[in-house]
Amino acid sequence: MTTVVITGNDAAANAAKLARVQVIAAYPITPQSPVVEQLAAWVESGELPAEFVAVESEHSAMTVCIGASTVGARAFTATSANGLAYMTEQIWWAAGARLPIVMCVANRAMAAPWNVLNDQQDSMSVRDAGWVQLYCRDNQEILDTTVQAYRIAEQLHVPVMVCYDGFLLSHTVMPVDVPDAERVDAFLPPFTQPFTVVDTDDPRNVGPVVIAEPRDDAAGITRPGYMEIRALHNRALHDALDFIPAVDAEWAAATGRSSGGLTWEYALDDAEIVLVAAGSIGMQLTVTADELRAKGVRVGVLGGRAYRPYPVEALRAKLANAKLAIVFDKAMSYGYGGPICNDLRAALYPAESRPAVFGAICGLGGRDVTPAHLAETVERAIADFDDGVRERADEWVNLHLSGEVDAS
Prior knowledge:
Blueprint: E1 2-6, H1 8-18, E2 23-26, H2 33-45, E3 51-54, H3 58-70, E4 75-79, H4 81-86, H5 88-96, E5 102-107, H6 121-124, E6 132-135, H7 139-156, E7 160-165, E8 174-178, H8 181-187, E9 215-216, E10 222-223, H9 226-255, E11 263-266, E12 273-278, H10 281-293, E13 299-304, E14 306-308, H11 312-318, E15 324-329, H12 339-348, E16 356-361, H13 371-386, E17 395-396
Parallel strand pairs: 2-3, 2-4, 4-5, 5-7, 6-7, 12-13, 12-15, 15-16, 16-17
Antiparallel strand pairs: 1-8, 6-14, 9-10, 11-13
């Protein structure tokens, strides 16, 4: 291991290099640009033997990854915000074609209005496209998760999105242990595309139109129709619920570090109040938990690492003894509420023992969220719960609205 002090973007680039990616498709957008800039420098110097393809748009970046992965190359790209939105058509294609592409998303607010600062609205907007989504709490986890993502993607034949908070992690430096290449090679064998059909002596269409019903191919073998293909894809995402923790355990055996598998926790064993979040805000919540425990309140933190697939059983088990869960979302499902909060409510609904679930919307467009803000939000939630409240509207943290707002 070598310990270096680097940004989250550098951690992502180092992980892609350690994974020995073969094709990198790049289009710049703040705050992810330094990821592909660093990879470009390594390719130019010969330190990374890979094809670096500078494209004219994010849509084309994912298209390049789709082509590379189809013929058996390990492909990588990164994006943020409206760049992710621009490639949305190809996000669905990569997943539907079952291609093991890994993409880092430096989470950033969506326009309009334009804002380059952090929230998680971008990746949340494509959470149902069929990609595995993993969220990172610090720079070490960015490196570890990106390497693990290739094992997950190539085993299950699904693409993986590694999400981390823009600027809060992408541009913040912290110590990161970088494993040696030999250690990663032992963990991550070369990629072999098992169903490559590209043959210059036998050219054919890749991804043709699939009709609704199963049908026999030219050899008389019954092939799935569209609905069967979707069911198999869904099954692969469910298989990831077992495979993600298994890969994390293998990584822990190889490096001595674990990211927690599907979730991570802090002071959860005796917690009556559990604070739930994905990304770097989970680390802030550990500070809040410590402050409230100093006041005698049994507070713990449950961090979400895997958001798709959604770890329903794990969440039910972790929250079985809590009386109140407070979910901090950095995104909105407009007209409904925080996406993580609403998913958690749905997951817990059939459980015999479940806490009340309150939601909080925070940090949109980079709005400051301090431990003090978080502690005040938690204390208000506890007060409402103690007063008998079991359902309430999401609280907006550090919001400044008074009277009518001029949207112009």
